[in-house]
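so my prof wants the structure for this chain in the tokens format not the other one, which i didnt know existed until like an hour ago. anyway here's the sequence
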Amino acid sequence: ALFTVEVPQQLYIVEYGSNVTMECRFPVNGSLNLGLLTVVWEQIRQGKSKEVYTLRRGKTFPSSQHHDYIGRAAVLHSELNLGRAILHIISVKITDAGSYLCLIDYQGVDYKYVTLEVKASYKRINTQVMRKQEDKFAFMCQSEGFPLAEVFWRNEKNFSLSKYANTTYRLTTDGLYNITSILTFKPNMSENYSCVFWNKELGGETAA
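here's what i got, hopefully its the right format
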């Protein structure tokens, strides 16, 4: 029979900062001879590959591991006997997203790809009110997340005030979008105003 690597799940979608476990399976046929086993997990992102974890003939090769994954990625050795090459990554970053190659060499060679998507909800919205002139106020909302969100402003009658707002963003070193939206206008003092971070790809919104 042909030596075949299989993946029980092809797509993993995880929250930024959480942990992920990705798996590929291979035939062991009896008890595993670790000295014959090679497992390679590699990330491919924007045409570039990074070595995530390598086990060659039963021995780990930490020196070949890409620095982005040092201390964060490992293969669960206890599962190898069962023909499961499980890659565990902790504190997932935005840059961990991409395709992952799982290559197994054990009395035959085969490989499969899985995909990791990372999202970061705009959970925490920081708000601030600043007085511009006597009757004009600036309302500020700021939050971080991924992918890029749109910011909408509205009053409690659900009337859109977005045309009065100026929204800017920058990328943080973690690959998150830091979005600041400032609404400047003459408010009705008896009304409440809210800003909404709408993330189309996540299909979710956060309001403040």
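also thought this was worth mentioning. The CA atoms of residues 155 and 188 lie 10 Å apart.
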